[in-house]
C-alpha cells in the first residue's frame, strides 16, 4: 500500500509539478491535500506546457485518478476554467474526484483577501489574492461553506447568511465597501454546485480502500514547508499545512499508510511575496539566477526573489516532514558559475545557529554563513546518470545531500520530463 507524500522543502515553486508528473506515470491516484489555486505547478511534456493551479498535476497522466482532498479550498469557478482549458487541449478530466468535505472559496473570500491586504499596508503578506486566507479563516471559525452544502438550497442560504453576517458589517463599517447580497451569493453557489456534483465523492473512503487494495497513492503538496502556517515563517505564510502531516489531515488517510516522504528542493532558493529570506540576493547574482531560472510566478507573474541554497532550511524540512528522499531540481540553472556559495548556518547577532531559530525575530535577523564550492561550465542537460555530471557538479550535489540530512534521489537538469537523473527509485 504505497502512500507517497511529495512536498515543497523551501518556499514554493521547487518543481513539485514536474516531480509529480514524473512519479505519476507509476501511480494509481494523485491527491492534492492543501491550499487552493494559490498554487502554480508547471508540467512540460514535449512541446506542451501546462500550468495547473487547483487540479493535481497528475491529471496529465490519463491512467490515474486525480483527487482533490478535504484539506483543499476549492474555488469552483477556477476549477471549471481549468477543466475547460485542459479538455480543450485533449486532457480528459471526467474522472476527477472532489471531496464533499472540501471548503469552498466564494467570491467574498477573494474580495476580503484583497481588502485586508490593502488594509495591512506595510504589514501585508503579499498573498496571491485568491481568497485562500479568508476561506481557511472561515473553516477555522466554523462559518465555512463545504462542497456538500452546495446541494441543499435552504441549508446553503442559512450558511451563507451566517458567514456574511459579520463580514458585511466589516465590509461596510471598516473597509467602506458595499455589503454582499446573501440571496444572490446563494444562487451563484447553487449553480456552481450543479456543475460540481458529478465530481463529488467520499474521497477519504476511496483513497483508504485503494491503499488497502495495494494501489499507489501520491499525495501532492502545494506551497511548501517554509510557508506552513505552523512550521513556516509566520505570519509570512499561507493558511494551510503544506508539510507532510497535512497529507493525512487533508485527505483522511492515517499516518501509518504513508510509506515515503519526498521533499522537492531547488539547487538554490526562491520566494514570492513578503517575509524573511536569509540568503536573498539583491545584487547582479540574484538577477542572474532570476534570468537563468526564468523565476517568475506561474500564478501571479511576480518576479521571484532569488538566493543561494540554504542548508538550514533543508535540514529543517527533513526534520519537520520526516523526509526519506529529496528531488533536487534546477541544477542546470547553476551552470556557468565559477563558485557557488551554500548557506550552512546562520549568524544571529554573533551567535551561530546550525538549526532553524524558532523565534521569528531571530530568523529575520539571521545572516547566512557561507561555504563556497567550485562551479562547472559544461551543459548538464543531457546527462542521464550521476557519473556523467562534471566532478565539481557531483561534489556540489554530494555536499547538499550531506548538509540536508537526507539522500538526494533524483536530480533535475531541465524542465522537460526526461531532464532528470535518477539516483534511487522514488517508488517501490
Ligand atoms: P511548483 O510550484 O513546485 O510545481 O514549481 P513551479 O512549476 O511553480 O516552478 C518550477 C519551474 O521550474 C517550472 O517552470 C518548471 O518547468 C521548471 N523546472 C522544474 N524542474 C526543472 C529543472 O530541473 N530544471 C529547469 N531548468 N527547470 C525546471
Ligand atoms: P506553489 O504550490 C510560492 C505565497 C504567496 C504569499 C503567501 C501567502 O506553486 O509552490 P496566499 O495567497 O497563499 O494566502 O499567500 O504564500 N504562496 C506561494 N509562493 N509558491 C506557491 O505555491 C505559493 N502559494 C502561496 O506569495 O507570500
Ligand atoms: Mg509554483
TrEMBL record:
The active site is at residues 13, 41, 139. Binds 1 Mg(2+) ion per subunit. GTP binds at residues 12-18, 40-42, 304, 330-332, 412-414. The keyword Cytoplasm applies. Pathway: Purine metabolism; AMP biosynthesis via de novo pathway; AMP from IMP: step 1/2. It is an enzyme of class 6 (ligase). Mg(2+) binds at residues 13, 40. Keywords: Cytoplasm, GTP-binding, Ligase, Magnesium, Metal-binding, Nucleotide-binding, Purine biosynthesis. IMP binds at residues 13-16, 38-41, 128, 142, 223, 238, 302. Plays an important role in the de novo pathway of purine nucleotide biosynthesis. Catalyzes the first committed step in the biosynthesis of AMP from IMP. This is Adenylosuccinate synthetase. The lineage of its organism: Bacteria, Bacillati, Actinomycetota, Actinomycetes, Bifidobacteriales. The gene is purA.
Amino acid at each position: 500500500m504505497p502512500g507517497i507524500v511529495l512536498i515543497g522543502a523551501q518556499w514554493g515553486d521547487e518543481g513539485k509539478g514536474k516531480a509529480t508528473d514524473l512519479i505519476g506515470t507509476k501511480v494509481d491516484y494523485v491527491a492534492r491535500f492543501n491550499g487552493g489555486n494559490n498554487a502554480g505547478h508547471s508540467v512540460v511534456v514535449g512541446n506542451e506546457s501546462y500550468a495547473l493551479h487547483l487540479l493535481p498535476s497528475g491529471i496529465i497522466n490519463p491512467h490515474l485518478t486525480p483527487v482533490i482532498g478535504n484539506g483543499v479550498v476549492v474555488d469552483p469557478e477556477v476549477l471549471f476554467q481549468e477543466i475547460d482549458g485542459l479538455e480543450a487541449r485533449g486532457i480528459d478530466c471526467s474522472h476527477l474526484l472532489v471531496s464533499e468535505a472540501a471548503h469552498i472559496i466564494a467570491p467574498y473570500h477573494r474580495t476580503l483577501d484583497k481588502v485586508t491586504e490593502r488594509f495591512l499596508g506595510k504589514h501585508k503578506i503579499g498573498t496571491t489574492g485568491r481568497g485562500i486566507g479568508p476561506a481557511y479563516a472561515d473553516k477555522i471559525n466554523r462559518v465555512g461553506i463545504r462542497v456538500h452544502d452546495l446541494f441543499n438550497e435552504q441549508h446553503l442560504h442559512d450558511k451563507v447568511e451566517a458567514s456574511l453576517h459579520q463580514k458585511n458589517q466589516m465590509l461596510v463599517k471598516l473597509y467602506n465597501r458595499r455589503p454582499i447580497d446573501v440571496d444572490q451569493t446563494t444562487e451563484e453557489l447553487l449553480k456552481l454546485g450543479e456543475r460540481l456534483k458529478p465530481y463529488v465523492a467520499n474521497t477519504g473512503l476511496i483513497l483508504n480502500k485503494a491503499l488497502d487494495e495495494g494501489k499507489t497513492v501520491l499525495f501532492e503538496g502545494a506551497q511548501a514547508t517554509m510557508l506552513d502556517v505552523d512550521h513556516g515563517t509566520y505570519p509570512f505564510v499561507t493558511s494551510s499545512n503544506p508539510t507532510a502531516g497535512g497529507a493525512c489531515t487533508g485527505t483522511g488517510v492515517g499516518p501509518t499508510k504513508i510509506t515515503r516522504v519526498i521533499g522537492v528542493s531547488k539547487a538554490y532558493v526562491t520566494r514570492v511575496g513578503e517575509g524573511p529570506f536569509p540568503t536573498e540576493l539583491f545584487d547582479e547574482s540574484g538577477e542572474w539566477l532570476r534570468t537563468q531560472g526564468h523565476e517568475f510566478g506561474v500564478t501571479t507573474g511576480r518576479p521571484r526573489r532569488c538566493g543561494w541554497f540554504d542548508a538550514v532550511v533543508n535540514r529543517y524540512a527533513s526534520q519537520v516532514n520526516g523526509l526519506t528522499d529529496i528531488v533536487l531540481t534546477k541544477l542546470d540553472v547553476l551552470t556557468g558559475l565559477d563558485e557557488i556559495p551554500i548557506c550552512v548556518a546562520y549568524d544571529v547577532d554573533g551567535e551561530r545557529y546550525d538549526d532553524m531559530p524558532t523565534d521569528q525575530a531571530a530568523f529575520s535577523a539571521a545572516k547566512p554563513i557561507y561555504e563556497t564550492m567550485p562551479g562547472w561550465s559544461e551543459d548538464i542537460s543531457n546527462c542521464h546518470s550521476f557519473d556523467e555530471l562534471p566532478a565539481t557538479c557531483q561534489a556540489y550535489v554530494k555536499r547538499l545531500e550531506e548538509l540536508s540530512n537526507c539522500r538526494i534521489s533524483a536530480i533535475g537538469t531541465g524542465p522537460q520530463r526526461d531532464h532528470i537523473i535518477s539516483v534511487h527509485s522514488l517508488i517501490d
